[in-house]
Amino acid sequence: MAHQKQSKYLLQKPDEELTPKDLQHQAWLHTLDHRLHLAPIDRDIKSVLDIGCGNGSWVLAMAKEHPKARIIATDITPPSTLMPANVMIIQQDAEKDWDLPCKFSLIHARALMAAIHDWPALLRRSWEHLESSGWLELQDVSIRYYAEVSEFNDPASSPWINWGSAARNGFTANNIDYDMTSKHVPRLQALGFIHVSEQRFRWPLGEWPDTETGRRLGALTLANFLAYLDMAAVRVVMQDPSVEEEEATRWRDEARRDVVENCVARRYYTTV
């Protein structure tokens, strides 16, 4: 989703676990035809902000593609990766006041759904920190899962979709709006953004698509979601106070087994 101007973090990564972020970065590259963004920025862009930079995969690629740009990346837990000279890393909570040295031609934010409680405030801060002709690009993954085979497209018949439903309850209990992407357009327009556009893509889970590119994307997304299941599934679901650890663990294990064994036959997918 690109737009032009006129914490509690449930998926907190372990200190040494960077692989899921790398998988996610590769999945986004496949989705966007190996582009880092959809916003039509100038080749000689001067300033870029990446909110919630994670392990820095996008920042590193952007710095290589635009070596003359000043790139600032923020995160509650800054990456330990050695960055090029045109990148500045700032430890900062995106939900608190931003202390940044300049305004930006492009503000990029990816996969912040589980980190942001107050989206109107974040969008307003983005507006305030953009240059007059700057772009804001938001990329995120849905927490709603689907099966193309209709008989398995509901929580009662699919442990994987059942876990997604339980995860949404957990996010809601933690004041996380998992449907925030459907609200971005009117909120941005109300702030004064112009040229607001939204693009949706499908992420298959597993190697069931007909094309080689689709199968590669499916392999990446399956590996990514399995990593997050192992890392955060129980914690996310237990944000719902009615769920005990034993039940959350069972749902996680059943979901993992289902998506590994049945992703091809049931053709599981989500949207971004």
What's this entry about, in short?
The chain is of the alpha/beta class. It contains seven helices and ten strands. Helix content is 38%, strand content 19%.
Task: Looking at this protein, list some descriptive labels.
272 residues; globular; alpha/beta; 19% strand; single chain; 7-stranded mixed sheet; 3-stranded antiparallel sheet
Structural summary, described in words:
This protein is globular. It is an alpha/beta fold and 272 residues long. It has helices spanning 19-31, 57-65, 119-128, 159-173, 184-191, 212-237, 245-266, and strands spanning 2-5, 47-51, 70-75, 87-91, 104-110, 130-139, 145-147, 193-197, 202-204, 268-271. The strands form 2 sheets. A 7-stranded mixed beta sheet has the order 4-3-2-5-6-1-8, with helices on both faces. A 3-stranded antiparallel beta sheet has the order 7-10-9.
Helix and strand sequence: EHEHEEEHEEHHEEHHE
Computed Rg: 19 Å
How is the main sheet built? 7 strands, mixed
Mean pLDDT: 92
Distance between the termini: 10 Å
Strand content bin: 15-25%
Overall geometry comes to globular
Our count of helices gives 7
Instruction: Kindly report the spatial arrangement of strands forming the biggest sheet.
Output: 4-3-2-5-6-1-8
Low-confidence stretches: 4-18
Measured as a percent range, the helix fraction is 25-40%
Find the count of extended strands (DSSP E, 2+ residues): 10
Label the structural class: alpha/beta
